[in-house]
Amino acid sequence: MAPTAAYDEIADWYEQEFLARTEPGTDPLGIDAALRDLLGPGGGGAGAPRGAGTGACLEIGCGTGIRAARMRELGWTPVGIDVSGAMLRHAGGRLPVLRADAAALPFKDGCLPAVAAVMAHTDMPGYPAAMREAARVLQPGGLFVHVGVHPCFCGGFADRSDPQAAVIRPGYLDGYWTKASWTDQGIRDKVGATHMPLPRLLHAFTDAGLTLERFAEGGEPVPTVLAIRARKGRP
User: Fold this and answer.
1) pLDDT tens-digit profile of 6-29?
2) How far apart are CA 203 and CA 133, in angstroms?
């Protein structure tokens, strides 16, 4: 099943049940903390797409748009794209959205001060292409912030059923798509996920012409999340 169709099928469950498991005001995986520390305050900027306002931050794979409020708190104007129309129906009340592929962004070159991908890269088999597109639409000096599942400790090879330990089995070194999961209460077993070993993920940044700047991890007992801030160079 294509990722688009798979997410269309689970959009209501994701919005009404999956998101409800996280107590409001808590940040157990450190996702909001990573956005605060790596995306930082929005400073505006010329050249944002029409209708997006200054200080626009484009979220690729925005899903139901649950990170929009955090971006606004930081002073950014969030705009989202996703391939799933059902997810975007939930997102539309949270931020301006477009149905589009992250590997073919409907924005002109050098028009955005920031792009973010939040817990989305495993849903994009062509994530390196999405990163190249992000670099294309960024202004010189613009930020790309990646917040995603930690490639070393999450995947079909990782068993996190013990809250005090993570068991890593063979499979980390292989890049693949899988629905294998230690739990049937999550997303991976329903829509599948693409695994990218850490070197391949980091190479996607440098191959896109982005310079790595800062990093963060979050979650316990070993990190569930790896976050990276990178910047597009200036001429």
Assistant:
1) 899 999 999 999 999 988 889 999
2) 15
